[in-house]
Amino acid sequence: MTDADADPGMNGMNDKDGADGADITVDIAVVGAGAAGLSLAHRLAGTPGPHGAAPSVALVEAPGEPGSGTRTPPRTWCFWEAGEGPYEQAVRASWDRLRVRCPDGRTAEARLGPLRYKMIRSPDFAELVERRLARLPRLHRPAATVDRVLDHPAGGAVVHGTDASGSPVRVRARWAFDSRPPRRLPAARSTLLQHFRGWFVRCAADSFDPSAVELMDFRTPQPAHGLSFGYVLPLGRREALVEYTEFSAAPLRREEYERALRHYTAEVLGLGGMTVLDTEQGVIPMTDAVFPRRAGRCVFRIGTAGGATRPATGYTFAAVQRQSDAVADAWRRGRVPVPPPAHAARHRAMDAVVLRALAAGRLSGARFFGELFLRNPADRLLRFLDGRSRWWEEVAIGLSTPVPPMLRSAVELPVLRRRDAVLPRP
């Protein structure tokens, strides 16, 4: 451990510190109660340190209804996992098969072996974690709209915010972890948005295969730039989450998503007697930007803000769990708990090439992803998408892609200028 990484301690940190107006003093502050914040607080609050004691943790979340967890609209998180995981009680559905349908009608279908593709809804996840957190005596739950998370001159970090009445709230901590999504993305050579709208539907007759996910159905009209696909998560023979997704430079208007969903459900899937029970919508950045995981001597970023989103796919939940486990392990060993890179450097490099080829219009995205699944074993691709593939598997995957556009994109990346990008407002 270098001097720069030495534990700064919390010299002069006391509850109700008059000089700094601190309201709470803890070992660790976690800002935000979405997937990343809840996961980290849950892992840390029950992990003993090198001297045997679990840390005191402040989970700082936006003002709202007590126990509501995330303050954003409900959303769906999916990931691959073998066996039962730590959040199994929150899993809404899981599947052991997946399908990818090409624009020309060819279908790649595969069983997942020991893996299952699992779906968690954010309210179920929050409820499960909230129940577990409620049993922990050293957890604090200040409600505040956070505007700054900074190193403190006396050591440690301080979280500044205001409560629902506008009064200041300050949390002093040895370490602070900020999970708030970035408003402005770091500079990147290529940036696309994965944007989508989904319907939770119920049909009058059996319409879905509850054992299989339609991971990518490219029988949708393809945009001039980027790609589009349907995504179907069956919740039974008559119920499913059906989404229309695009990878492109900007989101659509709501009426455009609705028109695309009507076309997909009626003309492609042939669903009749269908009722829309609920909706969800979102935007995920797909970028080769470098997300700094350290914002100060004692301040770290986690989740999407800390680079947990996989650049070429948008998957985030599994990477969040890996980061949380690594931070908790560092605390247990008495080390500086810097969140590790969520994805290996070679995977980020390969994703950068794919993003560049897609953004430059050199690839038919629908054909590219369809051929990947047709020409590679599903378990190999899933290991790659989850960041667990070996180099020789990645070589085989690379050889199944269109070489000229990928090679041209790889050659030009080092000389491309990185540019700022702003995320659209929800």
TrEMBL record:
What is the name attached to this protein's record? Lycopene cyclase family protein
Source species: Streptomyces glaucosporus
Phylogenetic placement of the source organism: Bacteria, Bacillati, Actinomycetota, Actinomycetes, Kitasatosporales
